[in-house]
Design brief:
about 190 residues, about 10% helix, Bacterial SH3 domain protein, mainly beta, SH3-like_bac-type, 1 helix, signal, three-stranded antiparallel β-sheet, SH3 type barrels, nine-stranded antiparallel β-sheet
Length: about 190
């Protein structure tokens, strides 16, 4: 009896993981009435405090983590949870997304890899050539990023992992360690520019 229950639980866990796929990823809100909203809650349960809402037609919602049928999303400077039954994963999201917005603090910096790649600090902005993305040969959650700039080469390792920026209560699904200009920068990334 216990063995059968364990097998059922393992099958259900596998089905839930297949539903969300690799995270973080972008999802669209579906199944919410036009005159309603999808609540973002402080904890992954229906009775938790409401932190914000998503419109019934919201698209491109980044889900950074999942637990028990709930997906972790950001609402302003805070992370919260939405019911995954109202989200549909966008297609074509294998590997590392082309457009990432990475950031770090002390010193403050931003790396954009999408339509207008650039490395930005409060003092300057440096254009970055289209980066080459390399998938790790032995880890499915690690990627190398190689790019050239007028100020020299930029090299980074991006990992699918829970990451916090230390300045907000936002959640990030990618961590980054980068070498640029003879310095090491560490931070977090989200999908998009």
């Amino acid at each position: 009896m216990v063995r059968r229950a364990l097998i059922v639980l393992l099958l259900l866990a596998g089905a839930a993981g297949a539903e969300t796929g690799e995270l973080p990823a972008l999802f669209d809100v579906r199944g919410v009435a036009a005159d309603d909203v999808l609540n973002i809650r402080a904890q992954p349960r229906a009775s938790a405090e409401i932190l914000g809402t998503l419109a019934p037609e919201a698209e491109g919602v980044e889900v950074v983590d999942a637990a028990d049928g709930w997906g972790q999303v950001n609402a302003g400077e805070r992370a919260g949870w939405v019911a995954m039954r109202f989200l549909v994963r966008q297609t074509g999201q294998e590997g590392l997304p082309e457009a990432l917005a990475c950031q770090g603090t002390e010193p403050f910096w931003i790396l954009r890899t999408g339509a207008a790649p650039a490395f930005v600090t409060p003092e300057r902005e440096i254009a970055v050539d289209a980066p080459e993305i390399l998938r790790s040969r032995n880890r499915t959650d690690r990627y190398g990023v190689l790019a050239e700039t007028a100020a020299g080469p930029l090299r980074a390792i991006v990992a699918r992992e829970t990451c916090g920026d230390g300045m907000s209560d936002r959640a990030f699904g990618f961590g980054i360690d980068m070498i640029f200009g003879g310095k090491v920068y560490s931070g977090c990334c989200s999908i998009g520019d």
